[in-house]
Amino acid sequence: MTLNDDSVLEIAHHFRFQWEPAQQAHVLLYPEGMVKLPGSSGEILKRVNGEATVGDIVADLGRAFPGADLRGDVIEFLEHAYGKGWIRTK
Amino acid sequence: MEKAGSEQSNINLPLWLLAEVSYKCPLHCVFCYNPVDYATYGEELTTEDWLRVLRQGRELGASQLGFSGGEPLNRPDLEILIAEARKLGYYSNLITSGVGLDEKRIAAFKEGGLDHIQLSFQDSTREMNDFLSSTRTFELKQRVANLIKKYDYPMVLNVVLHRLNIDHVQQILEMAEQLGAEYVELANTQYYGWAFLNRDKLLPSREQLQRAEEITNRFRERIGDRMKIYFVVPDYYEIRPKPCMSGWGSLFLAVSADGIALPCHTARMLPGITFPSVRDHDLGWIWRDSPAFNAYRGDAWMQEPCRTCPEKAKDFGGCRCQAFLLTGDATNADPVCDKSPFHGVVTDAVERARLVAANSAAGPELLFRDDANSRRLSDTERSPSA
């Protein structure tokens, strides 16, 4: 699966994305399980909100972390998350 | 949450909090893992007690919350607990037989923020063959399954297998398909609590297991992605133990209906350990500092063959309760492991169950999980004779 720049992404049904203070990390919760999303992976999924496109997410991360060329890494992680069923296109 | 300078800073977070809110149950399953003496326990926790436990658990870092029992629907305040759980940020799971789940309640659960329902499928009457033939049971599950779908929950079905129903795996899977299940767990009985008492009558033969797995695999091929099926083999047919609870006091914390905190569902049976009550202590102390939760934490307690075993970090020596039940000493290796000098106890149990199966009149009668049996068995345990 290749995601387009125009694809609008949302967190998949029955998954919940949230910040866990005790772990100092973002996590995805799902029935009887959890994925920990430290650092950049959490920053990326934080921007998956059912409105932003892949292009928006890349651009927003570029503004938040200027100076780095993030595009390749961001798309790669989003495709990984899509493959895992954590996120879906709207 | 970290205590500065604590020598126990290597303790993990209790990510899984299980609230066994009530041991009352409308069913009387012979394979129940609940404690045999449950009917002698003290009063159930109050709503306030549970709200405190939920808050403290969340502060400690728990993110997954299970409501179980017994039948958790027996608690009329479940709606309150679910809503509080959502406010606190838990992902909450209801583990239920469905008996007592009507539209009013499920609507309130949804409104309150319950995330997930696991519907278990048991024989709900004393007649074993009712399990497959009873339209009453099927209609109840059908009604509950429809409610689960209507309220936009994934349809997750758990079926406990044993000798008396494992030959019907095909029909069970067809029933699951009819109910519209998206996930089906075919979980063979593990032998604790009531199931341990009934083991000779419940443990399936190797041939039965193989047949059931073959049928399951064929069904998987036909149904594809529409239904995800898990098949769990009884420990007694393994040669390596399960990494029970991912290790004692490592990520799992259960609180029982009367407030006793446990590192696994069945640990209460272990002798020589006083399990703390949430009525007397906060969960932080219980999890980090109580002698009970430190009893088998790490690997200092291990004996040979675990102590020097290269696999000890993988399976943590298996299950303390199974080690105690089968060898009399919870610090032994789980005898499911074929490196254990007690492994013969497991293979003997398999052989004895096979003999009992061959002669259906032989062996003890099935003991149903009910209050009268629980009291009677507790009296026997306490009597000085025997």
Q: Can you describe what's shown?
A:
The complex is a heterodimer of chains A (90) and B (386). Chain A is α+β, with helices and mostly antiparallel strands and 90 residues long. Chain A has three helices and five strands. In chain A, strand 2 (16-20) and strand 3 form a beta hairpin. Chain B has helices at residues 47-60, 78-88, 103-112, 130-133, 135-150, 169-179, 193-197, 199-202, 206-223, 283-288, 291-294, 312-315, 320-327, 343-358, 371-382, and strands spanning 16-22, 64-69, 91-96, 116-121, 156-161, 183-188, 228-232, 252-255, 261-262. In chain B, helix 1 (47-60) packs parallel to helix 2 (78-88) and helix 2 packs parallel to helix 3. Chain B is globular. Chain B starts with 15 loop residues before the first strand and ends with a helix. The chains are: A alpha+beta (90), B alpha/beta (386).
Write the SSE topology.
The complex is a heterodimer of chains A (90) and B (386).
Chain A: E1 9-11, E2 16-20, E3 25-30, E4 33-37, H1 39-46, H2 54-64, H3 71-84, E5 87-89
Antiparallel strand pairs in A: 1-5, 2-3, 3-4
Helix pairs in contact in A: 2-3
Chain B: E1 16-22, H1 47-60, E2 64-69, H2 78-88, E3 91-96, H3 103-112, E4 116-121, H4 130-133, H5 135-150, E5 156-161, H6 169-179, E6 183-188, H7 193-197, H8 199-202, H9 206-223, E7 228-232, E8 252-255, E9 261-262, H10 283-288, H11 291-294, H12 312-315, H13 320-327, H14 343-358, H15 371-382
Parallel strand pairs in B: 1-2, 1-8, 2-3, 3-4, 4-5, 5-6, 6-7
Antiparallel strand pairs in B: 8-9
Helix pairs in contact in B: 1-2, 2-3
Residues in β-strands, percent of chain A: 15-25%
Helical coverage of chain B, percent range: 25-40%
Mean pLDDT of chain B: 90
Strand residues, percent of chain B: 5-15%
Helix content of chain A: 25-40%
For the sheet with most strands of chain B, the description reads: 9 strands, mixed
Terminal Cα separation of chain B, in Å?
A: 49 Å
**How many helices of chain A in DSSP terms?**
3
